[in-house]
Each structure stands twice: as structure tokens, then as C-alpha cells.
Amino acid sequence: MYRTHTCGELRINNAGENVTLAGWVQRIRKMGGMSFIDLRDRYGITQLVIDDGASHELNEVAEKLGREYVIQAKGLVAERSSKNSKISTGDIEIKIEAIKVLNSSQTPPFTIEDDTDGGEELRAKYRYIDLRRNPLKKALEIRHKLGQEVRKYLDNIGFMEIETPVLIKSTPEGARDFVVPSRMNLGEFYALPQSPQTFKQLLMVAGYDRYFQIVRCFRDEDLRADRQPEFTQIDCEMSFVEREDVLNTFEGLIKALFVNVLGHEIKEQFPRMSYAHAMKYYGSDKPDIRFGMKICELKSTPSNGINFSGHSEDQVVDLVGGQNFVVFDSAEYVAGICVEGAASYTRKQIDQLTEWVKRPQIGAKGLVYIRVEEQKIKSSVDKFYPAGHLEKIATEMEAKPGDLILILAGDKRKTQEALGTLRIEMGNRLGLRKNDNFAPLWVYDFPLLEWDSETQRFYAMHHPFTAPKPEDMEKFYSNNRDHIAQVAANAYDFVLNGTEIGGGSIRIHDATIQKRMFEVLGFSDQEAESKFGFIINAFKFGAPPHGGIAFGFDRFCALFGGQETIRDYIAFPKNNAGRDVMLDAPSPIDDSQMEELFLKSTLKK
Ligand code: ASP
Questions:
Q1: What pTM was computed for the model?
Q2: Of 90, 213, 299, 307, which has the most beta carbons under 10 Å away?
Q3: Ligand 1 center–CA 395 separation, angstroms
């Protein structure tokens, strides 16, 4: 037996027992004639002591130990004279009688402490050493626990876990596919799935009714911050359901995860909000509703043309026109946010904020401010607007003395998004986005399609299997582009603290509607047939009404762990350039492998 106990197990009531532990040497300290060794394993750290009077042999072995040596230590559990309340075994130590070195170790390239001295690149290269550190261990524990709870919950309500293939067919929609050449079918390629979307729908056609899978997905996208080329989804699908059935089912799952993983009970129903409402008041389709600071429109007209209006939320307002201020007069849309207690922002701080909103990522042309003070109002545009007019705007925005109003103007959609970004930035600066607070939210009624002016065609905003809302069916079959653009999707997202964690939809289950969808997306009949014939065909064999959702499992884990980045929650992640620096992958393959596949690189060396 290598060990009788783990390094996290022994307590004061074990005092007097003879035990054997095995683990890694975290640290060795010498004090006079005594040596102290911190022995670590997955479960914790136990202090080993070699007394002054220890045998020559024992001292000799101890002398040779270094950090990260793997040892087996036998000894007697004793109460410590100076206890360490920071660790669970801190009341005891082991008086060592014998040590056996199971393996030596080179000096690790960085310290294995919570705050390590190793840089990111170095730690990635030695990921297996980095994984010994507590923060990473905790991250993987959360991931494990979440996965187990998902399985338990869904199994309990009749969901079946079914695996779907990893080698599939490349399809033109969505992100770029990773492709795999087939040796047995020379000149042909598989694609790795971006999600099991069509398979889960086919499982519904097959009658499986409730499916889930914790599944790897692959997308060959340019890596934006915190994306991984391979990532994991909790993928789910149900038959004979409407939107509310899906939302309620998965609200149940999320609440259970909160309770069972974090001990955090959410009693209330999650708030729900239409996409149009979210854009109008939060400038984002994934609003962080932990704080207010809602967008207030000062000039707006109903969306027209190719811009989705989302039916109900459009209003005509103009509180800023007619004062000869060209910026506002010529803008399609003017709106602002009221930042509580920020009137103390200096001119210089506002100038910096102006530069900030002008960055290409945000793209605003400028920033107008109104500073609301006890007796007076100060603004960057007060030469155009008399005090009374500014006061009216301040009242409309429910500003109080001490508040700072920030206003942007321009194209409607872009300005909404810019204000959304500014709102998040001000929320961060004011400390309103604390992590220990959770604000779940469902957003629904997204646009079905997005028009791309460059390629002059529609793209599916979610994916081409999402059903249009029944009430928009007439527009869906219209020949008028502007009408088609107004079609809402029966799609929904789950948002937590301003991050989209999940998304799904009620699906098309009718072959003719699915065909129309491909037509709207600009596919010829032949193209639709060759790329998606299998699903159009399946719908001819009794497809039930169905819908589903997929959650980003990595992101869920990070949020539950209170961290921004998903990388720590993946045992072996890729870096920002999509590389595994430990394996040094991707890498060239041998000429013989290339030849076997009849592949030739045209890349100039
Ligand atoms: N497959 C979709 C996605 O990956 C989710 C869904 O519609 O269920 O975004």
C-alpha cells in the first residue's frame, strides 16, 4: 500500500496513529536540527517533521530531497505545538520514521504557489506542473462538479445522453469548419462539428424526445479574447415543446446548478426581455442587469428598411432638435445614459472618456456631457441649449444633482451599441458589476436574419434551423427584402451578468419552411439539396415540433468560479493563437503522411 491516508485527511483525532502518506514535496525548511517538509497531493498539504534525534539514514534521505520530489513517508501523527489554521490538517504533523523517494524531480520552472512567479507562456508549456497549483485544481473541481450536476439533473427529468459523431460533413453556414482529410475516400474531407445541431434535431425525428450531451465543438474562428477553437457545450433538445417549456426546463437546471454547486438559491423566476427592449435600454443583446443606468432616447424614429425593429419598442422622440446644433440635428438617433454621482468627473476625465468612445472598437464620433449640479447645469453644448432646455433633458433622464449625463449621436444601431459599451465601462468604474452578485436573464425574439451589405445577402442570426415566429410567416414569404428583415426568430439566449452563456431556439420542423429558409439565405435548390438534403428529407418522415438550447460549458464554469477567463477551466487549453504550446501543435506532418492523403502544400516556405 502506497498510503494509508491522503495529505488532506488527517485531523487531531488521528493523533497517535501510525500512517503512511505519499505526495509531492512542496517545501523544505530547516530549523536547528529539525527539518519540516510540506507534503502535497490533490487533497491538501500535511506537515512532516524530522526530529533532531532522527537516524542518520533518515537525515541522509531528507538531505537529498528537493521541490516536487515524489516521496512516501511513514510516521506517527502528533498534535502540533504551533497550529496552522489556514490548512485543514493544520492541527497535526507527522513525526517521520522513514522516507522513501519514489521519484526525483528537476527543479520546477516556476513556483507551485497560488501566486506563482511563472509567466503565462512558461506555465502553458508545463501545463502539467501548473495544474498542481490550487487555483487550477479548484477550477477543474468546479468543472467536474458542474458536469456531474448537469447529468444528475437532466437524467432525473428523463433526458438521455447520446453521443454524436465528431467526423461529419462540412456545411457552408456559420463559422469556418476545421476539416480532416479522409484517406479511405481520397480527395474528400470530413469537418469537425461546430455543434451537434443537425444531429440533435435528427434524434428528435427519431423519437428520442429529450436529448442532452456534454460535447466538444470546434470552430475555426479568429480567436477573439477568451475563445477557444475547441470548447464544450451542454447541448440539449426536446420534442413537443414551445419556448416557455424550454425556458422553464432549463431555468430549473440553472437554479439547481446554483444551489448544488455554489449553495446559492435563486427563488424568483428569471427576468425575460425581448431583444428589441434589450437593445433600446441596454444597447446590448446581453445586458448586465445588475445595475440600472438605462439608455434614454433623446431623438429616435422607428427603424426602417433593412434594420430589424422588433415590433413594439419603437417610438418617435425628439428632445434635441431645432437648436441649430448640427451634430444632433443631422443624427438619426441621439441617446444618453445618466451616471449616478459622476458629476465630479473633471474636464480632463471627460476628455479621456471622449477619446475612449472614439476608439474604432466603439466608433462614436464624440461625446456630449451634461453635468447636473445643485443649482446649475453645465454642458459641453450649452452654447446651443438654454439652461431650461438642458434641465428638460435632465428631467427626462431622471438625473439628480451630482449626476453626469453622457450623450452619443449617430446611426441608430451603432449608437445603441456604443452606449451599451459605455454603460458597461461606467458600471465597471463605479464598481456596479461585482462578481458575488448574480443576475440571470432570458433574452428572446431576436431577429431571424441579418443583412450583410458586403455580400448582399441575409445570414441567419442564430442558425438556419431556427423557426420564424408564426406571426411573421407572411413577411418570411414576402419578396420584399425590408419585410423579410423584420421577421423575428423564435430564439432565446440565457445571459448571466452581461455574458451570453446559452442560446437556442424553437426549430423549423416542416420541410417546406426549411426549404424557404435556404432560399432566403441565397442557396440554390441544388446547393440546399447537396448541403442540407439529409435534414430536409428527414423532415418529410414525421418530424415532431421541437426546440432546444446549448450552454457554453467552459464559460459557465468560469462564471461559477468567479473568473473572467475560460482558459483556467480547461485542463489543456490553446493559447491566443490557437496553439497548444505544450504539444507544439498544430505542426507540419511528414511528407509520407501528406502523400498517403494525396495532399500537397502550396505554401511558399
Ligand atoms: N447549436 C446552437 C449553437 O451552438 C445552439 C442551439 O440552437 O441549440 O449555438
A1: 0.93
A2: 213
A3: 43
